[in-house]
Amino acid sequence: MIPVAEALDRLFALASPVGTEEVGLTDARGRVLRAPVTATRDQPPFAASAMDGYAIRETDCAAGTRLAVIGEAAAGHGFASAVKPGEAVRIFTGAPVPEGAERVVIQEDTAREGDTVILGHGISDNRNIRPAGIDFHAGDAIAAPRLLRPADIALAAAMNAARLTVARRPEVAILATGDELVAPGGEPRPDQIIASNAYGLAGIVEAAGGRARLLPIAGDSMASLAQAFDLARGADIVLTVGGASVGDHDLVGAAAAEAGMERAFWKVAIRPGKPLMAGRFGQALLLGLPGNPVSSMVCAHVFLVPLIRALAGLPPAPAPRRRVRLAADLPANGPREHYLRADLGADGVRPHPRQDSSLLSVLAAADALIVQPPDDPARPAGAEVEVIDL
Ligand SMILES: Nc1nc2c(c(=O)[nH]1)N[C@H]1C(S)=C(S)[C@@H](COP(=O)(O)OP(=O)(O)OC[C@H]3O[C@@H](n4cnc5c(N)ncnc54)[C@H](O)[C@@H]3O)O[C@H]1N2
Ligand code: MOO
């Protein structure tokens, strides 16, 4: 058994970034930007009014001053000439501030009489003008690589980029194995169960920015597994589920080796998920998850998501953790790093009383995984622990 951090490092060592493609802005969310986006103009491109009011010269700014309103500036419709002493231009938020004007007095601080505006008392010190380039200047860039969030996409759009160079979505071929498995909606024999893992894993893959490809369920035989590995060709990651342990019918390691996998590791000090394996598999990577449903999903959060992100070109990094107070006592841990299914509440994080790795109902109800280091002593309610949000 190797520690979780070492297993992750060995995985990252196998990962090299996939190629890129261009996408439109509406397809860019959650993708990894791979080429910088550079602004082609300042934003705003002109000094812009921040308020609705009157654009005036600074020397005219005194209570009771009467100014001639000589025209109007609206967003998208600038005022063509200058504001001179004794003059004002009616102006609206987002409009270019006319030449000569040094301040916008908000309309609430004025009175209007025909073509004259009268400045009131208590005009604020705020000039209400956004200088050109206050947001960004031509030549400013969004650096790559970067996981694109909605605000990044809006920023790229503001920079006048219509298409972005992003990582191709890493393809993950998901291979569930086991003679006991029948696809959902099928007709299982009394000694069979419904295959669930691949569907949860596909959701994790897609949410992480990958593309999931579900392969047909493979039986517990070398021939069936060989055939399945054949079908996995072309994927960036071959993700097997089940058959990873030491039983007579756990053949994934042997079948993968026969199909050309060079093993990087097998067995990690993690609970759940101990029989995890990984290796190079031709042009692809193979990640072999244990079959217990919770083990497979926990290992996907801990290993697969960071791997997909690294393949997309982000700097290798483990799943983000944060510190939260315990709302209940946490028993001492054994020799494996424990990822406990837990509920988050106003009083902190509470480990679920049942932690068996077969309990999908518990995982589905959980908000977070508490990460308890190997051989950690018991922790009382109120102590801080690290969690991964689900
Ligand atoms: N003698 C030992 N036995 C086991 C050990 C060990 O160290 N020594 N480790 C245990 C641990 S820990 C785990 S985790 C499991 C994992 O074993 P496998 O990866 O070989 O998984 P399977 O035996 O194929 O399946 C385990 C369990 O999960 C069900 N399963 C499998 N695939 C799916 C699926 N796609 N959807 C839903 N459920 C699935 C399967 O029916 C089994 O019940 O090994 C322990 N044993
Ligand atoms: O590590 Mo296994 O995943 O305990 O159930």
TrEMBL record:
<dbReference type="InterPro" id="IPR036688">
    <property type="entry name" value="MoeA_C_domain_IV_sf"/>
</dbReference>
<dbReference type="InterPro" id="IPR038987">
    <property type="entry name" value="MoeA-like"/>
</dbReference>
<keyword id="KW-0460">Magnesium</keyword>
<dbReference type="Pfam" id="PF03454">
    <property type="entry name" value="MoeA_C"/>
</dbReference>
<dbReference type="InterPro" id="IPR005111">
    <property type="entry name" value="MoeA_C_domain_IV"/>
</dbReference>
<dbReference type="InterPro" id="IPR005110">
    <property type="entry name" value="MoeA_linker/N"/>
</dbReference>
<dbReference type="GO" id="GO:0006777">
    <property type="term" value="P:Mo-molybdopterin cofactor biosynthetic process"/>
</dbReference>
<dbReference type="InterPro" id="IPR036425">
    <property type="entry name" value="MoaB/Mog-like_dom_sf"/>
</dbReference>
<dbReference type="GO" id="GO:0005829">
    <property type="term" value="C:cytosol"/>
</dbReference>
<dbReference type="GO" id="GO:0061599">
    <property type="term" value="F:molybdopterin molybdotransferase activity"/>
</dbReference>
<comment type="pathway">
    <text>Cofactor biosynthesis; molybdopterin biosynthesis.</text>
</comment>
<keyword id="KW-0500">Molybdenum</keyword>
<dbReference type="Pfam" id="PF03453">
    <property type="entry name" value="MoeA_N"/>
</dbReference>
<dbReference type="InterPro" id="IPR001453">
    <property type="entry name" value="MoaB/Mog_dom"/>
</dbReference>
<comment type="similarity">
    <text>Belongs to the MoeA family.</text>
</comment>
<dbReference type="InterPro" id="IPR036135">
    <property type="entry name" value="MoeA_linker/N_sf"/>
</dbReference>
<feature type="domain" description="MoaB/Mog">
    <location>
        <begin position="173"/>
        <end position="310"/>
    </location>
</feature>
<keyword id="KW-0808">Transferase</keyword>
<protein>
    <recommendedName>
        <fullName>Molybdopterin molybdenumtransferase</fullName>
        <ecNumber>2.10.1.1</ecNumber>
    </recommendedName>
</protein>
<dbReference type="Pfam" id="PF00994">
    <property type="entry name" value="MoCF_biosynth"/>
</dbReference>
<comment type="function">
    <text>Catalyzes the insertion of molybdate into adenylated molybdopterin with the concomitant release of AMP.</text>
</comment>
<keyword id="KW-0479">Metal-binding</keyword>
<dbReference type="GO" id="GO:0046872">
    <property type="term" value="F:metal ion binding"/>
</dbReference>
<keyword id="KW-0501">Molybdenum cofactor biosynthesis</keyword>
